[in-house]
Amino acid sequence: xxxxxxxxxxxxxxxxxxxxxxxxxxxxxxxxxxxxxxxxxxxxxxxxxxxxxxxxxxxxxxxxxxxxxxxxxxxxxxxxxxxxxxxxxxxxxxxxxxxxxxxxxxxxxxxxxxxxxxxxxxxxxxxxxxxxxxxxxxxxxxxxxxxxxxxxxxxxxxxxxxxxxxxxxxxxxxxxxxxxxxxxxxxxxxxxxxxxxxxxxxxxxxxxxxxxxxxxxxxxxxxxxxxxxxxxxxxxxxxxxxxxxxxxxxxxxxxxxxxxxxxxxxxxxxxxxxxxxxxxxxxxxxxxxxxxxxxxxxxxxxxxxxxxxxxxxxxxxxxxxxxxxxxxxxxxxxxxxxxxxxxxxxxxxxxxxxxxxxxxxxxxxxxxxxx
Length: 371
Ligand SMILES: Nc1ncnc2c1ncn2[C@@H]1O[C@H](COP(=O)(O)OP(=O)(O)OP(=O)(O)O)[C@@H](O)[C@H]1O
Ligand SMILES: [Mg+2]
What we know:
Oligomer: single chain
CATH superfamily of the largest domain: P-loop containing nucleotide triphosphate hydrolases
Mean pLDDT: 95
Number of strands: 11
Low-confidence stretches: none
CATH architecture of the largest domain: 3-Layer(aba) Sandwich
Bound molecules: adenosine-5'-triphosphate, magnesium ion
Largest sheet: 5 strands, parallel
CATH topology of the largest domain: Rossmann fold
Strand content: 5-15%
Order of helices and strands: HEHEHHEEHEHEHEHEHHEHHHHEEH
Number of domains: 2
Distance between the termini: 47 Å
Shape: globular
């Protein structure tokens, strides 16, 4: 009986090991981490930041990562909870007891989850002010930090949500200076991240070396994807690759999502050709239609016109006479305001001065469905 394969494409989560397509930033990042350099990694959403750092550390003999995801933390207590939880997962029994003693001022409790793994709880009353974080950060940056331990703060810009953000940043910065090993700061809201590391009066100014992460080079990404099709017994017509890359623009997550849908849509034929590409699009539309309809319905008439024009004409020179004419919006400031709202909703992003859809399939859907 032929071996049954599972869908080899991954999206929406971090990719590692054989699922990680080599990218040029990898060896550079490893060199910096080996030398103990702190790094701030900038990059669009879903471009591969978390995967890159995790894979970098995974391939460094004797090194280990500690990943602290602080996405949308809203209080110093929830921040302390995220840091403590990450540490508890990384510590063995003996170190765990020592850790709990060190942070006893935070009245930690330890329970076991359904899988028998320890879960730590920090008393909310013990961490109401930024200074309450000190015992935890002391442990993180001195006892835990080591030359071969890479401490990764993911979605670091979320610190800005905290009511006492500045004070928290100042305390964290002073503790990070006592570190023994490298820290990596990741963030997907690039503008806010940049300000945290560059603004004149920001505690984190110049505290880490900036690195920019781009799309995967097509000469690496396409063969990686083609191999995944081939390894699972699929034949792919060479002619489809230009279509795939022109639709997704090479965005790593979206390109994997499209390949995943193409794979699913041809379970019977195991062949992807220019003629059946649209089966894959339809699968994605079926998954995402409720979201597309909701997003479209949220927009005013002007915002819809501007978005439609970006879809059909491209997002360059959006205040030019040509764009205004094509969109039927008379005033450039009205287009600007519409773009601001499309940015706020993260439907459109600014990529080097050009306005592009953050989700290329939303664009395709608008065009195919005749909006
Ligand atoms: N090196 C890579 N090889 C193959 N696919 C990748 C690679 N990097 C990113 N991807 C694709 O992008 C997706 C998102 O990757 P990842 O979660 O690392 O990005 P991120 O920038 O951290 O995203 P977020 O903004 O959500 O935090 C992956 O699931 C995968 O589909
Ligand atoms: Mg991430």
